[in-house]
């Protein structure tokens, strides 16, 4: 069965009246959508594309793929402390597969509804499978969380359990010894395919964190962006890194590889003054989200993060580097040890 | 030579301080860019992706491709009467080719500068060549040009000389008899590869046009969107259609195929009350842009446009249909007569 471009958008992505958020003054279907941030708010914008063979495997469940395409973008809003308003979708499809489209739209729009984020525009094209999303959110004037605000003396925090997505990816690649038990594989695969953007955490960190970033390319690599922008250094304490149940059962070198350089985590790394330690913990408790203090910000200028076993211990050799799409092999091919520098 | 993802963005797309528009409160390089529409303004958003083999040929000059990727999006802003503010770029590249990237960035950023439109965010990925752009603009509250505002009695207008892009495409496909002279090929190829978004026209039409759309899928097909949204009919007068120098030299059936169903024109089709005829002409003169009155809006509900040779003549059979990416063969393969309905 063949469907035209206009039918596709109408059938799968335009919501019936009364269903889903309606924030656009002019919605999906005119040349532009029109949105208005609330008074005193500025607009936060981010864009991310997902390409088959690079960001996802062709076997992925379409609902999970729809979820992830939006999740990785909402994660950027979260890192800025922005509240989601709407998003646009540019979808390139090799063919019109209605079962696939229905699943994709469900995963995408369910997550959109959860975050009150309206699909305000779209474009579909025939071509190799790729998904481009641009999200729009609002932040109070002067209230955006930046990478550049970390100060010497700040504590360094991370949300959730980074490393699970990479553990699942390595299980797919068959590089794990011992191999991953089925239950662990299912759980970590969910973390890889259905990351939860930390939108509520980002909102809670407004006025509390001094800097934040989301972990898409690996914890140490992304932390490096904060350090360079803020002109500070940081110590990360290996023994303070949060281990999920599944990572806790793995060899130590694998734990560190996955947590420090895994990528695809969509947790937030952030800095906050030590006198606000209790407030950070209270926020985590309120959100039901583990927030772990994993290090400290120091004076030295913009260098790579230093790794120590614990606060005050001697620095370890740091061989964990940032994930880079142009330097890594595709996820469908076996990779070298992800912790090895190129 | 291999460049990483972060280097790519920094090298080709981040402007030196003082060069290019600076409108973002937080620019390219943080998780989100932050923008603020001016007081009394709302935000207009549109997104379009260009995929190799579908929207452009692999042989296209990269500077022209960079120009076009932004132009087709600015054209959507123009159709809404929005002033460009900024845009995001999601670039998928099969490999890092520095000469290509330098050309692409030049074409893209030159057009961006011309329209005072800042690149506020980006994402690069390895994969099949594709370019996703999302543009953001501002429109006065209540002042957006819509597809739904056409009223019976309005005059129907088109800007410029639609049809040239399709003439060039058919020359590439080798379907033209007689074939196109070299000078005509170069000129129409420029129209296809470097369309000029009618941003200034869109701004001038605020408060003057009752409805507008940009011609991306063919004049009659796009006009059909206005008719359906506005609940009106329209007559298009074949003898009033503007013929460029190059189209004027072609057989009549080819002229009509290209103008009425060509697509890829990025001219504006709009409606305006007859008592404002002189104002429309004055706007065209001011902008140095041909604006042609090509028809009338009637009462009958949301049907396909009717074609007549001139006002009052009997309707002609209308075999021109909308361009549809999922129904058309790719531009690299010969197509049937573009005017034939499937």
TrEMBL record, chains A, B:
<feature type="binding site">
    <location>
        <position position="46"/>
    </location>
    <ligand>
        <name>Mg(2+) 4</name>
    </ligand>
</feature>
<feature type="binding site">
    <location>
        <position position="323"/>
    </location>
    <ligand>
        <name>substrate</name>
    </ligand>
</feature>
<dbReference type="GO" id="GO:0005524">
    <property type="term" value="F:ATP binding"/>
</dbReference>
<keyword id="KW-0547">Nucleotide-binding</keyword>
<feature type="binding site">
    <location>
        <position position="31"/>
    </location>
    <ligand>
        <name>Mg(2+) 3</name>
    </ligand>
</feature>
<dbReference type="GO" id="GO:0000287">
    <property type="term" value="F:magnesium ion binding"/>
</dbReference>
<feature type="binding site">
    <location>
        <position position="47"/>
    </location>
    <ligand>
        <name>Mg(2+) 1</name>
    </ligand>
</feature>
<dbReference type="GO" id="GO:0009228">
    <property type="term" value="P:thiamine biosynthetic process"/>
</dbReference>
<dbReference type="InterPro" id="IPR006283">
    <property type="entry name" value="ThiL-like"/>
</dbReference>
<dbReference type="InterPro" id="IPR010918">
    <property type="entry name" value="PurM-like_C_dom"/>
</dbReference>
<dbReference type="InterPro" id="IPR036921">
    <property type="entry name" value="PurM-like_N_sf"/>
</dbReference>
<feature type="domain" description="PurM-like N-terminal">
    <location>
        <begin position="29"/>
        <end position="139"/>
    </location>
</feature>
<keyword id="KW-0808">Transferase</keyword>
<feature type="binding site">
    <location>
        <position position="76"/>
    </location>
    <ligand>
        <name>Mg(2+) 3</name>
    </ligand>
</feature>
<feature type="binding site">
    <location>
        <position position="48"/>
    </location>
    <ligand>
        <name>Mg(2+) 1</name>
    </ligand>
</feature>
<feature type="binding site">
    <location>
        <position position="217"/>
    </location>
    <ligand>
        <name>Mg(2+) 5</name>
    </ligand>
</feature>
<feature type="binding site">
    <location>
        <position position="264"/>
    </location>
    <ligand>
        <name>substrate</name>
    </ligand>
</feature>
<feature type="binding site">
    <location>
        <position position="123"/>
    </location>
    <ligand>
        <name>Mg(2+) 1</name>
    </ligand>
</feature>
<feature type="domain" description="PurM-like C-terminal">
    <location>
        <begin position="151"/>
        <end position="303"/>
    </location>
</feature>
<protein>
    <recommendedName>
        <fullName>Thiamine-monophosphate kinase</fullName>
        <ecNumber>2.7.4.16</ecNumber>
    </recommendedName>
</protein>
<feature type="binding site">
    <location>
        <position position="147"/>
    </location>
    <ligand>
        <name>ATP</name>
    </ligand>
</feature>
<keyword id="KW-0784">Thiamine biosynthesis</keyword>
<comment type="similarity">
    <text>Belongs to the thiamine-monophosphate kinase family.</text>
</comment>
<feature type="binding site">
    <location>
        <position position="48"/>
    </location>
    <ligand>
        <name>Mg(2+) 2</name>
    </ligand>
</feature>
<feature type="binding site">
    <location>
        <position position="216"/>
    </location>
    <ligand>
        <name>ATP</name>
    </ligand>
</feature>
<dbReference type="GO" id="GO:0009229">
    <property type="term" value="P:thiamine diphosphate biosynthetic process"/>
</dbReference>
<feature type="binding site">
    <location>
        <begin position="122"/>
        <end position="123"/>
    </location>
    <ligand>
        <name>ATP</name>
    </ligand>
</feature>
<dbReference type="Pfam" id="PF02769">
    <property type="entry name" value="AIRS_C"/>
</dbReference>
<dbReference type="InterPro" id="IPR036676">
    <property type="entry name" value="PurM-like_C_sf"/>
</dbReference>
<keyword id="KW-0460">Magnesium</keyword>
<comment type="pathway">
    <text>Cofactor biosynthesis; thiamine diphosphate biosynthesis; thiamine diphosphate from thiamine phosphate: step 1/1.</text>
</comment>
<feature type="binding site">
    <location>
        <position position="55"/>
    </location>
    <ligand>
        <name>substrate</name>
    </ligand>
</feature>
<dbReference type="Pfam" id="PF00586">
    <property type="entry name" value="AIRS"/>
</dbReference>
<dbReference type="InterPro" id="IPR016188">
    <property type="entry name" value="PurM-like_N"/>
</dbReference>
<keyword id="KW-0067">ATP-binding</keyword>
<keyword id="KW-0418">Kinase</keyword>
<feature type="binding site">
    <location>
        <position position="76"/>
    </location>
    <ligand>
        <name>Mg(2+) 2</name>
    </ligand>
</feature>
<feature type="binding site">
    <location>
        <position position="214"/>
    </location>
    <ligand>
        <name>Mg(2+) 3</name>
    </ligand>
</feature>
<dbReference type="GO" id="GO:0009030">
    <property type="term" value="F:thiamine-phosphate kinase activity"/>
</dbReference>
<feature type="binding site">
    <location>
        <position position="76"/>
    </location>
    <ligand>
        <name>Mg(2+) 4</name>
    </ligand>
</feature>
<keyword id="KW-0479">Metal-binding</keyword>
<feature type="binding site">
    <location>
        <position position="31"/>
    </location>
    <ligand>
        <name>Mg(2+) 4</name>
    </ligand>
</feature>
């Amino acid at each position: 069965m063949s469907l035209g471009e206009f039918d596709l958008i109408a059938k799968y992505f335009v919501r019936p009246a009364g269903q889903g958020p309606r924030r656009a003054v002019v919605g999906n279907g005119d040349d532009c959508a029109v949105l208005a941030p609330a008074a005193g708010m500025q607009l936060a914008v981010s864009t991310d594309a997902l390409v088959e063979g690079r960001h996802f495997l062709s076997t992925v469940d379409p609902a999970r793929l729809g979820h992830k395409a939006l999740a990785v973008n909402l994660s950027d809003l979260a890192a800025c402390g922005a509240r989601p308003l709407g998003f646009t979708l540019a979808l390139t499809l090799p063919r019109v597969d209605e079962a696939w489209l229905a699943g994709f739209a469900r995963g995408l729009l369910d997550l959109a509804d959860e975050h009150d984020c309206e699909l305000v525009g779209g474009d579909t094209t025939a071509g190799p499978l790729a998904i481009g999303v641009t999200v729009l959110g609002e932040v109070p004037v002067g209230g955006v969380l930046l990478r550049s605000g970390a100060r010497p003396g700040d504590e360094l925090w991370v949300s959730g359990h980074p490393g699970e997505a990479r553990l699942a990816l390595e299980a797919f690649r068959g590089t794990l010894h011992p191999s991953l038990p089925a239950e662990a594989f299912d759980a970590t695969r969910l973390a890889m395919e259905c990351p939860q953007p930390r939108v509520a955490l980002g909102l809670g960190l407004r006025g509390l964190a001094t800097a934040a970033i989301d972990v898409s390319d690996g914890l140490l690599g992304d932390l490096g962006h904060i350090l360079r922008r803020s002109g500070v250094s940081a110590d990360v304490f290996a023994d303070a890194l949060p281990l999920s149940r599944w990572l806790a059962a793995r060899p130590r070198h694998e734990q560190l590889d996955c947590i420090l350089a895994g990528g695809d985590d969509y947790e937030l790394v952030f800095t906050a003054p030590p006198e606000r330690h209790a407030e950070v913990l209270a926020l985590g408790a309120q959100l039901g989200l583990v927030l772990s203090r994993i290090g400290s910000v120091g004076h030295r200028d913009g260098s790579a993060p230093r790794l120590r076993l614990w606060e005050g211990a001697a620095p370890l050799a740091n061989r964990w580097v940032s994930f880079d799409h142009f330097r890594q092999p595709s996820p469908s091919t076996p990779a070298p040890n992800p912790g090895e520098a190129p």
